[in-house]
Amino acid sequence: MSLNLWLIPVLPLVGAALNGLLGRHFSKRVVTAIALLFPGAALAWALLVVSRALGGGVTLPYTETHATWLGSGAFSVPYAFYLDQLSIVMMLVVTGVGFLIHIYSVGYMSHEGGYYRFFSYLNLFMFFMLTLVLSNNYLLMFVGWEGVGLASYLLIGFFFLRDSAASAGKKAFIVNRVGDFGFLIALFLMIKHFGSLNFDQVFAKVSTMPVEAAGMGLLTVIGILLMVGAAGKSAQIPLYVWLPDAMEGPTPVSALIHAATMVTAGVYMVARSNPIFFRSPTALIIIAIIGCLTAIFAATIGVVQTDIKRVLAYSTISQLGYMFLGCGVAAFSAGVFHLMTHAFFKALLFLSAGSVIHALGGEQDMRRMGGLRKHIPKTFWVMTIATFAIAGFPPLAGFFSKDEILWKAYSSPFGGSWIYWAIAVFTAFLTSFYMFRLWFMTFFGEFRGAEHEGAEHAGHGHAQHGAATHGHIHESPWIMIAPLVVLAVLSFVGGWIGIPHALGGHNQFDQFLSPVFHVSAEAMPAGEHPGARVHEAAAEHAETNTELLLTGVSVGSAILGLFLAWLLYYKRRDLPQKIADSLGMVYRFVLGKYYVDEFYQAAIVKPLLAGSSTVLWRGIDQGLIDGTINTSADATRDVSDGVRQMQSGNIRSYAAWVALGAACVIAFMIWMGVR
Amino acid sequence: MLHYILFFLFAALAVGGAVNLLAQRHPIASALSLIVVMGSLAGEYMLLGAEFVAAVQVIVYAGAIMVLFVFVIMLLNAGEEERSLKGSKVAIAIGVPAMLAGLIMAIWTLTRHNPANTPVGVGAMYGPAIAIADQLFRPFLLAFEITSVLILIAIMGAVVLARKEEQQ
Amino acid sequence: MIPLSFYLVLSAILFACGVAGFLIKRNIITIFMSIELMLNAVNLSFVAFAAHWQVLSGQVFVFFVMVVAAAEAAVGLAIIIAVFRTRETLNVDRVNLLKL
Predict the structure, then answer these.
(1) What is the ipTM, given to two decimal places?
(2) Exposed, middle or buried, A505 (CB in 10 Å: 0-12/13-18/19+)?
(3) Residues A563-595 as b or e (16 or more Cβ within 10 Å = b)
(4) DSSP string computed for A497-509
(5) Is residue B109's pLDDT more than 90?
(6) Is the pLDDT of residue A8 over 60?
(7) Residues A390/A345, Cβ–Cβ less than 8 Å
(8) CA triplet A384, A388, A391: central angle to 5 degrees?
(9) Mapping DSSP to helix (H, G, I), strand (E, B) and coil, where does residue A37 land?
(10) Residue A233, CA distances (Å) to A134, A266, C78, C93 in order
(11) C-chain residues near A648 (CB < 8 A)
C-alpha cells in the first residue's frame, strides 16, 4: 500500500508556487488561505501516514521510489522517500510546529508589506525541510539542505531594504556554504568508496567495515566532514556566527527556521548517519567536544545580551550544542528527543518574544521592558511555561530531554565522561540563569520604556510598526495566542514520552527510535547498547542511584540559576551593574561576543576580499582575460590596418597584387609538377 | 631551316613590338606597335597551320579592334603621358618583380621538360575554314550561339555607356 | 621542326610584356592595350598546343577568345569614354575613388 509520501513535501511547494507567482494579484484572505491550506494538508497527511505506519499497515522502514534522478553507470540517485521512526519524528515536528507558526504569522505579519512573499518563502522552506527529512539518499537530502539555506537567506533578508538584514542573509548563506563544503567532500568520499548515496546501501556497506579505534580511517574522515556540514547548518563552533545576525528576520522566521527546524537539520543528519559514527570513535569525540564547547560558549554570551531575540539566539546555539553532545556520546535518541522538546519550547519562546515585541510596537531591548505581566498576561503565562521548560524544571519537557543527555554524557559507553557532564551541568545553570534573567527583566518590576516608544524604535524584524497604529501596550490577537497555547501544552507534556527508567517510566521515545539506532549498534564491541535494558539487576540498581543523584544535581543547578536571576534582577537591581563594573575587561570581552566576528573579519574576510580584488579581479580578470581579448582585438585591428593599405583605389597596385598572386600560383604548380 | 628563320623573324617582330609598346609615350604609338605584334602573331599562326585563325586575327583583331582603339585615342585626344614617378610605388615595387619571377619560372620549366621539347612541324595542325566551321557548328554550337548573344549585349552596353546624358 | 617550348616561351615573354605594361603605364588606354597583348599571347599558346596534340579545339577556342576580346574592348572603351567625360583625365592614378 502506497503511503504517497511525496505529497507531504509537495503540498507546501504548491502553496509556495501559487503564492509566489500569483500572490500579487490575490487578496490578503486568499493568500492566507493558500498559505495555511497547504501546510495544513501536509500535516494532515503526515498524521495519516503515521497512523497507518504505526497501525501496522506498513512495515518500517518504508521506501517509496518515484524516478531516477541521476544515473551514471553503476551509480544512480533516485527521487525516493524513506520513512522510518526517525523520519516520523522529524516529519511530525516540522509539519506540526511549522503549521502552528504559519498560523501565528498570519497575525504577526498582517501589517507588514510583502505578505504574500513571506508566506511563499515560508511554504518553500517547508518543502525543502520535508524533502530533507524524508529523502532516502544523501543527495536528495543535500537538495533539501541547500534549499533550506536558500529559504533562510530569503527570509532573513525579508526586509531587504535594510542593509543589516541583507547582510545578515548573506552572512548566513556564506557561512552555511563553508559547512556545505565539508558535507560535499563527505558525499564524494561516499560515492567513491561505497558507490552509492542511498542510506540503505551506504549503511549496509558501512556495517561490514570494522571499528576504527585507532584514529583516522575512511569512516572517521567522512564523519568529521559530515560534522563540518552539520556545524555550518546547526550553528556550532566555529560556524555559528550567522545565527545571532539572523535575528534580523521576522520573529516567526526565527522561531521556525532558527530554532525548531532548519538548525536541527544538522542533528538529524548526524543521527541518520549513526552507523558511520558508531564505527568511528574519533569522530564521536570531536562531535562531543564541539557540542560541549559550543553549549557553554554560547551560554556565557547569552548571559550579557540585552536584546531579547539575541538572548534566545545564543540560547538556541547552546541547546544545539547539547544535542550534538548527546550525539557525540552515541546517545542519538537522546539528542533527537532534545531536538523535539527544544522545538516546542524554543518556538514558543521566540513566538512569545514576538508577541512581546508586537505588544510594545517594536521594542526589543530588555532594558526598556519590565512589568509586562500585568499588561499581556496570556503571553506572560505561556512564556513562563517555556522558560521553566528550557531551564529544565520537572515535570516539563525540557527536564526529561536535557537530563537524558546529561546522564548519557556521563555514563555512555561510547566516550561518556564526567568532564562533559560537569561542563553541561554548569551550562544548564547558566541557561537557567539567563532565561530567568530574561523573564524577570521582561515581565517583572516597573515598565522602563516610554509609553509611545514604538514610533522611535522601529525594531528589528518589526519595521514600520509604530505607535501610529497601536498607542499602548496591548495583548496580541487570538490568532497569535492560540498557537502559543498549543506549544505551551506540548512543552508541558512533551517530555512524558521519554521518562527514564530511573524515574519509573519506560522511555517510550527511546524504545520507539531503537530500530534506527540499535541496528548498527549490534556490531559494536562496546559492552552496553545505549538505552538498552539488558544487564544485571544489581548493576542496574547502582546505576539508577547514580542517575538519580545526577538528576538531582541538574535540577539543583536549575533552581540555583532561578535564585541568582531573582536576586540580581528582581531583588537587588543594582547588583548587575556593580558586578559588570568590577569585572571590567572580562565583562566587555564577553559583551563583545569574544570578538569572534571581528576576528573572522580581520583574519578571513579582509584578506579574502583583498586577494580577490587585487589578484583575481585586477590581475586575472582585467589583466589576463580582458587583456587577452583586448590584445587579440587590437592585434586584429593592427593587422587589418596593415592589410587595408592594399585597398588604395589604385588600379595598378591591384594589378600588382594580382601579379604577385599569380606568380605564387605558378611557383606552386611548378613545385607540384616537379615533385 | 626556313622554318626556323621565319619563326625567329616573326618572334623578333612580336617581341620588338611589345617592348615598343612599353617604351612609347604617346598612346597612338603604342597602338601601332600593337598592330605590329598582331601581324607577326598572324604569321606565327600560319607557321603552325592555323590559316583561318591567322586570317581572323588580321581581320578582326588588327583590323577592327585596333582600329577602334585608334578611334578612341583620337576622340579623346589623349596627349603624351607624363613621365613622373608619382603614383603607385606598390605596382612597381611588387608587381614587376613578381612578373619577372613568374616569367623566369615559366621559361625555366618550359625548357627543362621533355614533352615541351617535342618538335612541332610546319603546318602541323592544318585548320582550314571548313574544319573550323565543322567544329563550331557541331560540338561548340552552344558556345557559338552564346557568343552571339554576348556580342549583342556588348553592343547595347557600349551604346548605353557612351551616350551623352540628357540635358534637362 | 620547332620545339613546342619555343612557342610557349615566346608566349610567356609576350604575356610578361603585357603585365609589365599594365603595371607601368599610366594612360588607361595603353593599359587596355596591354590587356589585348596578354590575350594575344594566350592565343598563341592555344594554337601551339593545338598543333602539338593534333586537336582542333585549340584553334576553335582562339576564335572564342577573340570574340570575347572584341566585346570587352568595345565595352571597356565605352567606359573609358564615360569616365573621361566626368574626370577629364586619362590618368589611371586619378581615378581612385574606391579607396578605403
Answers:
(1) 0.89
(2) middle
(3) ebbbebbeeeeeeeeeeeeeeeeeeeebeebee
(4) GG--GGGT---HH
(5) no
(6) yes
(7) yes
(8) 140
(9) helix
(10) 18, 6, 88, 81
(11) 96, 99-100
Are the CB atoms for A258 and A171 separated by under 8 Å? Answer: no
Is residue A78 within 8 Å of residue A136, measured between CB atoms? yes
Side chain identity at A172, as an amino acid letter? Answer: A
Does the distance separating the beta carbons of C19 and A650 come in below 8 Å? no
Question: What was the pLDDT predicted at B113?
Answer: 64
Closest C-alpha among B111, A467, A111, A522 to residue C5? B111
Q: B91 — contact with chain A (CB < 8 Å)?
A: yes
Q: Which domains does chain B have, with CATH numbers?
A: 2-162 (1.20.120.1200)
List the single residue in B with minimal CA-CA distance to C79. Answer: B161
Asked if residue C24 belongs to a domain, the reply is yes
**What CATH number has the domain bearing residue C62?**
1.10.287.3510
Domain that holds residue C60: 4-94
pLDDT band at A458 (very low <50, low <70, confident <90, very high): very low
Residue C43 lies in a domain: yes
Name the strand (E) or helix (H) holding A79: strand A75-83
Look at residues A44, A47, A97 and name the one whose alpha carbon lies nearest to residue A342.
A97
- From chain C, the residues in CB contact with B81 under 8 A are 25-27, 30
* Mean model confidence pLDDT for chain A: 84
SS3 content of chain A, % helix, strand, coil (to 5): 75, 5, 20
Domain assignment present for C21: yes
Which amino acid, residue A471?
G
Residue C95, classed as helix, strand or coil, is coil
Of A389-403, A635-649, B110-124, which gets the smallest average pLDDT? B110-124
**Secondary structure class of A533 (helix, strand, coil):** coil
Average pLDDT of A374-394? 88
Euclidean distance between CA atoms B118 and A199, whole angstroms: 91
Domain count, chain C: 1
Q: Is residue C19 part of a domain?
A: yes
The cell for B123 is 603546318
Burial class, A74, CB count within 10 angstroms (exposed 0-12 / middle 13-18 / buried 19+): exposed
* Mutation for testing the B interface, residue in C1, C2, C44, C53 having most B CBs under 10 Å: C2
Q: Do B125 and C71 touch (CB under 8 A)?
A: no
Amino acid at B40: S
Instruction: Determine the pLDDT at residue B60.
Output: 93
Q: Is A649 on the interface with C (CB under 8 A)?
A: yes
Of all residues in chain A, what percent carry a pLDDT higher than 90? 25
| A671 has a pLDDT exceeding 60 | yes
Q: Is A72 helix (H, G, I), strand (E, B) or coil?
A: strand
Coil, strand or helix at A321 = helix
CA distance B168 to chain C (A): 17
Spatial neighbors of A277 by CB under 8 A, at least 6 apart, are A223, A270, A283, A284, A287, A327, A330
Report the pLDDT value the prediction gives residue A461, as an integer from 0 to 100: 44
Alpha helices, H only, A195-329:
199-207, 218-233, 242-245, 251-255, 265-272, 274-278, 281-304, 308-328
